[in-house]
């Protein structure tokens, strides 16, 4: 059985690979991919695998975006950390799934379905599933580079995002900063709007990073953030009214 694993958490990918080899010693894991872009490129280049294990939320977006760019003929088992409510939607949509952290018994059930040729995946309504997931979840980590290595930055550690000269930096509560590949426009749709607000063209802030708010000239608001921003932080006059509404919940 030739298997493709699409999973952006390295420990989770290794654990799944070990579980697959343990459950089916003859399994051949063709590759482990961590992004939509890389998965689309692989699927366009190589013959279809026998089975794909696909995490829902990967480094550069939702794995559903892969289906929009390339035809997938192999059966897919989605892996997900979403709660039971969201999982029920996958069951109704005839999509097989494994709830993370993956239980070896659940993996065995999915593999038996495949072995018995009872694994039949109905055509996926990708748009509907994407909307469902976006309603229930937001991006909870970012792939960032530290030195010569890649690591994952949890969204919960980020105080604000700052854009300058076409580059976006994530400033964390610990005082460090990391470059991320997303623009502020993209981040607005990826992050929980209850937690983050774009106060200007160049700054997207988390509610808990705001320490003080001061009225300023021309209807603007001046903010004090923790950690502090490299420059003075203002809510633009155009966004001030919406910002006050957002603060009030």
List the helices and strands and how they pair.
Blueprint: E1 2-6, H1 10-23, E2 28-33, H2 36-45, E3 51-55, E4 57-58, E5 61-62, H3 64-69, E6 76-80, H4 84-92, E7 96-99, H5 104-115, H6 126-136, E8 141-146, E9 149-154, E10 158-164, E11 167-172, E12 177-180, H7 184-190, E13 196-200, E14 203-206, E15 210-215, E16 221-225, E17 233-235, H8 237-247
Parallel strand pairs: 1-2, 1-3, 3-6, 6-7
Antiparallel strand pairs: 4-5, 8-9, 10-11, 10-14, 11-12, 13-14, 15-16, 16-17
| CA gyration radius, whole angstroms | 21 Å
| Strand order, largest beta sheet | 2-1-3-6-7
**Count of helical regions:** 8
Percent helix among the residues?
25-40%
CATH fold title of the largest domain: Rossmann fold
Strand composition percent: 25-35%
The top-level CATH class of the largest domain is Alpha Beta
Q: How many strands, what sense, and barrel or not for the largest sheet?
A: 5 strands, parallel
Structural class, by secondary structure, is: alpha/beta
Q: Total number of β-strand segments?
A: 17
What is the total domain count?
2
Question: Which features does this protein show?
Answer:
single chain, 249 residues, alpha/beta, Rossmann fold, OB fold (Dihydrolipoamide Acetyltransferase, E2P), 2 domains, five-stranded parallel sheet, five-stranded antiparallel sheet, 8 helices, 17 strands, 33% strand, elongated
């Amino acid at each position: 059985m030739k298997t493709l694993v699409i999973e952006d958490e390295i420990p989770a990918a290794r654990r799944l690979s070990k579980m697959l080899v343990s459950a089916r010693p003859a399994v051949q894991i063709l590759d482990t991919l961590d992004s939509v872009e890389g998965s689309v490129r692989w699927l366009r280049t190589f013959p279809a695998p026998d089975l794909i294990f696909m995490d829902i939320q990967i480094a550069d977006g939702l794995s559903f975006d892969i289906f929009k760019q390339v035809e997938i003929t192999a059966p897919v088992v989605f892996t997900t950390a979403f709660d039971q409510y969201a999982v029920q939607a996958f069951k109704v949509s005839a999509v097989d799934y494994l709830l993370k952290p993956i239980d070896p018994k659940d993996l065995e059930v999915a593999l038996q379905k495949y072995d018995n040729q009872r694994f039949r995946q109905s055509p996926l309504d990708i748009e509907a599933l994407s909307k469902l997931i976006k309603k229930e979840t937001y991006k909870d980590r970012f792939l960032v580079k530290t030195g010569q290595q890649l690591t994952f930055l949890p969204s919960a550690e980020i105080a604000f995002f700052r854009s300058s000269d076409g580059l976006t930096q994530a400033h964390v509560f610990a005082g460090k900063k990391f470059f991320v590949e997303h623009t502020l426009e993209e981040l607005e749709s990826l992050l929980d709007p209850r937690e983050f607000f774009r106060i200007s063209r160049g700054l997207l802030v988390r509610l808990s990073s705001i320490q003080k708010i001061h009225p300023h000239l021309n209807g603007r608001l001046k903010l004090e953030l923790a950690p502090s921003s490299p420059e003075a932080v203002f809510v633009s006059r155009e966004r001030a009214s919406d910002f006050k509404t957002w603060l009030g919940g």
